[in-house]
Amino acid sequence: MKLYRIYILLLVTSILQQACNSNESQDQYSHWSMVNGNYTGNKYSSLAQIDTGNVKQLQVAWTYHTGDADTAAHSQIQCNPIVVNGIMYAVSPKLKLLALDAATGKPRWVFLPYDTTAENNKLNFNLNNNRGVAYWSDGKEDKRLFYVVGEFIYAVDAGTGKRITGFGKEGKVDLHEGLGEQAAGLFVSATSAPTVYKDLLLTGTRVSEGMDAAPGHIRAFDVRTGQMKWIFHTIPQPGEPGYETWEDKDAWKMTGGANNWMGMTIDRERGIAYAPTGSAAMDFYGGKRLGANLYADCLLALDAATGKLRWHFQYIHHDTWDYDPSSAPVLLTVTHNGKKIDAVAQTTKTGFVFIFNRDTGEPLFPVVETPVDTSDALHGEKLWPTQPIPQKPAPFVRQSFLEKDINPYLLPEELDEVKKQLQSYRTGKMFMPGSLQGTVVLPGFDGGGEWGGPAVDPETGMLYVNASEMAWILKMEEVKKKESRSENYLQAGQRLYQQHCTACHGKEMKGGGNYPSILGMDKKYNQASLIEFINKGQRMMPAFSHLKNEEKKAIASVVLNLKNEYQRKFEIQQTAADIFRELPYRFTGYDKFLTKTGKPALAPPWGTLTAIDLNTGGHLWKTVLGEDPVFKEMGVKETGTENYGGPVVTKTGLLFIAATKDSKFRAFNKSNGQLLWETTLPAPGFATPAMYEVNGKQFIVIACGGGKLGTASGDAYVAFALP
User: Fold this and answer.
1) Residue 181 belongs to a domain
2) 52 belongs to a structural domain
3) Who contacts 488 (Cβ-Cβ below 8 Å, separation ≥6)?
4) Which of 249, 277, 577, 669 has a Cα at 20 to 30 A from 104?
5) What is the dihedral of CA 30, 32, 34, 38, to 10 degrees?
6) Residue 380 to residues 197, 377, 476: CA-CA distances in angstroms?
7) Is the CB of residue 477 less than 8 Å from the CB of residue 436?
8) Long-range pairs for 381-385 at CB < 8 Å and ≥24 separation?
9) Residue 21: exposed, middle, or buried by beta-carbon count in 10 A (0-12, 13-18, 19+)?
10) CATH number of the domain to which 510 belongs
11) Are 689 and 701 in contact (CB under 8 A)?
12) Strand 44-45 to 648-650 pairing
């Protein structure tokens, strides 16, 4: 009898423990206290008030206007807000940190990271996009928020909105810290929120993508003091593993990039930080960084406490297409070959999904090193002969452009135009070298899975990813060496503009892709204010403070058409870094493959949403995401649009997503992709929603910042709830 009672006691204890564990697991999905929802990064909510049966009843619960949208500057809000103890923390277009009552949208406080008394605020800080903030608490009175403005991580008291002056220097840490002399004066910032692990703040950076890029080393700082605790060199230095993958043994001294700009995901139980890295600089020509280039284009599994490498996987060897992974990975558990395996999954710009064993880095589905076309590479280039191709899941976007893929809704003259252009370009498959005639890149530079990242249902192992499908043109041109360095301001300004500005703003300053025209800048700026703008940067434009003052004056003289400056003699002393940065080719610009009237050359859909079973690697469903207004007027439905920002998936069968150019916010049935609800936002929601509960009421909120894809800028956070 005594043994029987002991057995019953143990059984009850076991059941209670399982229930407790289940509740803990469930609880992490019932709030939105960190970017991407919870520590797995899966953007999943277990809240059950809104479901497939009542989602059509959703209505606006509150709207908060930040009041600082800047249409002229194409301002945006890409922030995925967080909610802690009923307070929402978010960021405005001009990077004010906001604390709002999450039930009403009423402001509690606003933190300004810059001097509001200055004559021109927008020149006092770097208007980079910011995708979120991090929260840390000691469990008592110390509650902190961390976010990045310009080159600084700020620490702000979550209760008062005041800067915590004991962190770093007067409440901020310079992101140049620990990067060495190589990074001095170079652009270093961050768009993704830092990640908290215990009492550490882990962060990557955003750096330039040209030859003036700082190294993208990953670091951890003490959350209380701001002191750097460890650093992982993403471009290995002598004596470190991976150093042998760079043919030039001094490349680490000059080469930049390989940066974790997309954020990371930390397995709290294992103490492992899974951090993807970007391409090495410059993006489209690797003649000065020959080799496989570890640890660029990798998934790194780092010991979160020490920064030591546990394992790595390289997605692209010697990247010359800017095909770096574009979002933080997702943690989940799948059933694979009859066994439960803790896995980490990564979506990519190429449209591939990679899934690995979290402990070992072993791919769960075969990945084959596949020969690729390296013929006719640019002089001095040495492309890698193979690239890793996962055999499952199948790609979630198209990866080649042939004549059969031309947009059938073009006018006859537009069809002829596109056919002639296509015949002149290199096309037909992925990983073709960049070329002087132009190479079609599909998925494009912003194609496949973008920075919003996927959502994953932890109960089913189903991954949901939104994607853009748009062809771009990768074209290079030769840079003629000058026999003489004797130049005037006009000659130097034209040369420097081509070297530093053409890729984004085009030869004729008309812009391209998501980059604006800079024609007419003389109406807004004089030489002094434009140089200040060059020093600070704005949005997608990095700061160019490393340029010498005479170089900035020469660029300003050309951009502002200061003819009285043109004949001034231009003289500077070149450094070793200046000589290293000179390339035999330059990238001509971020140009989509469009007709003269701006219509896509590629057939629709241009935006999609796909459900993929990560247990089997099979696709469950795929649907079009968004409607292009131009083609909608022509009677063409289901075109999809390019999209930025991720989805949220719920336990109750829903998938919410904004992200599209058409300003819609939509809810789909996660089981079959059926559209259940949509509403029009005040501006496109190029961000990831957040789902939370306050006082028993469930909300979903989305930042409506617009500003991309030619849309007007907005300044609103809009929350929805049932009546």
Assistant:
1) no
2) yes
3) 566, 567, 568, 569, 570
4) 669
5) 30
6) 43, 8, 13
7) yes
8) 381/285, 381/286, 381/287, 381/320, 381/433, 382/247, 382/286, 382/287, 382/290, 382/318, 383/286, 383/318, 383/320, 383/433, 384/292, 384/317, 384/318
9) exposed
10) 1.10.760.10
11) yes
12) parallel
Last residue of a domain, one of 397, 432, 466: 397
Can you tell me which residue has the tokens 């992200």?
A: 659
**Count of C-beta atoms within a 10 Å radius of residue 121:** 15
Residue 182 to residue 461: CA distance in whole angstroms: 43
Based on the fold, state whether residues 541 and 634 are members of the same structural domain: no
Question: CA-to-CA distance for 572 and 579, rounded, in angstroms?
Answer: 12
Q: Specify whether the backbone of 123 is left (phi greater than 0), alpha (psi in -120 to 50) or beta.
A: alpha
Q: How do residues 113-158 score in pLDDT, each as one tens digit?
A: 986 544 444 434 456 789 999 999 999 999 999 999 999 999 999 9
Contacts of 103 (CB under 8 A, 6+ apart): 62, 86, 694, 695, 697, 699
d(CA 92, CA 687): 12
Q: Are residues 577 and 691 in the same domain?
A: no
Question: Measured between alpha carbons, how far is 538 from 75 in angstroms, rounded to an integer?
Answer: 9
Phi, psi of 496 (to 5 degrees): -70, -35
Same domain, residue pair 228 and 345: yes
Domain count, the chain: 3
Do 541 and 76 meet the contact criterion of CB atoms below 8 Å apart? no
Written as six digits, the tokens of 315 are 């997605």
| Residues of the domain holding 568 | 480-582
Distance between CA atoms of 659 and 688, rounded to whole angstroms? 8
Q: Is residue 454 part of a domain?
A: no
The answer to whether 644 touches 79, Cβ cutoff 8 Å, is no
Q: Cβ contacts of residue 537 below 8 Å, gap of 6+? A: 126, 127, 128, 187, 543, 544
Domain final residue, candidates 380, 397, 414? 397
Dihedral angle sign, alpha carbons of residues 322, 327, 329, 334: negative
How many angstroms separate the CA atoms of 154 and 164, rounded? 8
pLDDT in tens, 527-541: 777 777 776 666 567
Among 193, 647, 685, residue whose Cα is nearest residue 455: 647
pLDDT at residue 14, as a whole number: 43
Structure tokens at 635: 């009677």
- C-alpha span between 30 and 588 (Å, rounded): 48
The verdict on residue 422 lying in a domain is no
Nearest to 700 by CA among 650, 663, 661, 642: 650
Q: Are residues 498 and 390 in the same domain?
A: no
Cβ atoms of 700 and 50 within 8 Å: the answer is yes
What CATH number does residue 301 fall under?
2.40.128.630
- Is residue 490 within 8 A of residue 566, CB to CB? The reply is yes
Q: What is the mean pLDDT of the chain?
A: 91
User: Does residue 641 share a domain with residue 550?
Assistant: no
Q: Which of 278, 264, 260 is nearest to 324 (CA)?
A: 278
CA distance linking residue 170 with residue 584, whole number of Å: 44
Check whether residue 577 and residue 625 sit in a common domain. no
Residue 169, token pair as written in the block: 């220097």
Considering only CA atoms, give the Rg of the chain. Answer: 25
Would you state the pLDDT for residue 122? 42
State residue 19's pLDDT score: 40
Pick the range with the lowest mean pLDDT from 277-286, 516-525, 679-688.
Answer: 516-525
Q: How far is Cα 350 from Cα 367, in angstroms, rounded to an integer?
A: 14
Task: Give the torsion sign (CA, 307, 310, 314, 317).
Answer: positive
644 and 571 share a domain? no
The one-letter code for the residue type at 125 is F
Residues 326, 220: one domain?
A: yes
